Structure to design on (197 residues):
C-alpha cells in the first residue's frame, strides 16, 4: 500500500498545532507530536526538519487560514471596520489555537520571526485597506492607518488572549461571547468614525 504523504503531513501538522498551542515551542517535544498523530517520529523530522521549523510552518499555515477566512480589502465606512473586527473575533473564537501560537511566538522575543517578509506583506495589505478608506474619507484618519489596523486586530484577539482579565473585569455579571462581540464591534466602529465636534 502506498504511503499517503499529504495525509501524513496534515495529521502531523494538526498534532503539532495542538501541542504547540498548549505547550509552546520550548515545552513541546517532537516525540509527543508524533505520538499524538500516531506516526513515526523519524517521518516528522523527514518532512519538517527540526522543531523550530515545524513551529514556523504551523504558525504560517494558521496565519494563512485566518487571512483567507477574514480578508479586509474594501472598508466603505466605520461600520465595515466594526464588522471586520467582529469577523476576526469570530475566527479567534472558533480557532483559539491561533491566539496561543502568536502569544508563544511573542514570548520567544525573536529579532525577526520566520517568514517575516511574507507575513509582513499580509499585514501591509491590511494597512493599505485602512489607508485607502482614510484617503477616500470613508473612515477617520485621526489615527494612522497602521495603528488603527493594529488596534482593531488587538481588540478582536485580546478577549481570547487574556480571558481571565475579561472575567475579573465583569465580576458581578460575566460577559458572554455575544456581549463581548457587541462591545468590540461598537468600539472598532467608533475608532473608525470621523470626529465631527
Amino acid at each position: 500500500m502506498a504511503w499517503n504523504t499529504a495525509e501524513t503531513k496534515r495529521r502531523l501538522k494538526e498534532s503539532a498545532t495542538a501541542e504547540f498551542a498548549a505547550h509552546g515551542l520550548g515545552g513541546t517535544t517532537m516525540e509527543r507530536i508524533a505520538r499524538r498523530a500516531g506516526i513515526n517520529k523519524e517521518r516528522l523530522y523527514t518532512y519538517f526538519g527540526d522543531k523550530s521549523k515545524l513551529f514556523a510552518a504551523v504558525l504560517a499555515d494558521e496565519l494563512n487560514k485566518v487571512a483567507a477566512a477574514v480578508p479586509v480589502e474594501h472598508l466603505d465606512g466605520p461600520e465595515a471596520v466594526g464588522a471586520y473586527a467582529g469577523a476576526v473575533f469570530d475566527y479567534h473564537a472558533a480557532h483559539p489555537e491561533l491566539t496561543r501560537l502568536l502569544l508563544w511566538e511573542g514570548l520567544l522575543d525573536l529579532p525577526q520571526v520566520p517568514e517575516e517578509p511574507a507575513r509582513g506583506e499580509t499585514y501591509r495589505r491590511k494597512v493599505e485597506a485602512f489607508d485607502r478608506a482614510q484617503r477616500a474619507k470613508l473612515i477617520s484618519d485621526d489615527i494612522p492607518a497602521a495603528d488603527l489596523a493594529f488596534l482593531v486586530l488587538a481588540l478582536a484577539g485580546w478577549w481570547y488572549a487574556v480571558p481571565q482579565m475579561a472575567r475579573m473585569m465583569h465580576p458581578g455579571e460575566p460577559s458572554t461571547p455575544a456581549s463581548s462581540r457587541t462591545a468590540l464591534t461598537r468600539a472598532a466602529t467608533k475608532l473608525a468614525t470621523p470626529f465631527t465636534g
User: Anything to note?
Assistant: Residues 5-27 form the longest helix (23 residues). The chain has two domains: 1-49, 56-192. The CA atoms of residues 58 and 147 lie 27 Å apart. DSSP finds ten helices and no strands in the chain.
